[in-house]
């Protein structure tokens, strides 16, 4: 089978979008955890804030990457 089929391109595009979202959200979680440990916070406000911010950023990037059909 050839990897140049139209279905293969769609799957690769969605896999790339999913990977981008995963990396973006994981970066926000890691940054928030690092900030919480650095500033010795008792409640994980940095983790919560960074996680939410990076989730919204990942959704925004996903919507921007969708084709305009």
Q: How far do the termini sit from each other?
A: 29 Å
Strand content: under 5%
Structural class: mainly alpha
Largest sheet: none
**Low-confidence sequence ranges:** none
N-to-C SSE string, H for helix and E for strand: HH
Task: Give the mean pLDDT.
Answer: 89
Write down the overall geometry.
elongated
Alpha carbon gyration radius: 17 Å
Secondary structure tally: strands:
0
- Total number of helical segments? 2
Summarize the amount of helix as a percent range: over 70%
How would you characterize the overall build of this protein?
This protein has 69 residues and is mainly α. Helices cover 80% and strands 0% of the residues. It has 2 helices and no strands. Helix 1 packs antiparallel against helix 2.
């Amino acid at each position: 089978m050839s990897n140049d089929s139209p279905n293969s391109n769609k799957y690769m595009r969605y896999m790339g979008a999913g990977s981008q979202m995963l990396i973006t959200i994981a970066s926000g979680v890691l940054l928030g955890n690092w900030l919480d440990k650095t500033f010795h916070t008792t409640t994980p406000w940095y983790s919560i804030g960074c996680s939410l911010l990076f989730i919204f950023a990942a959704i925004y990037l996903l919507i921007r990457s969708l084709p305009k059909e």
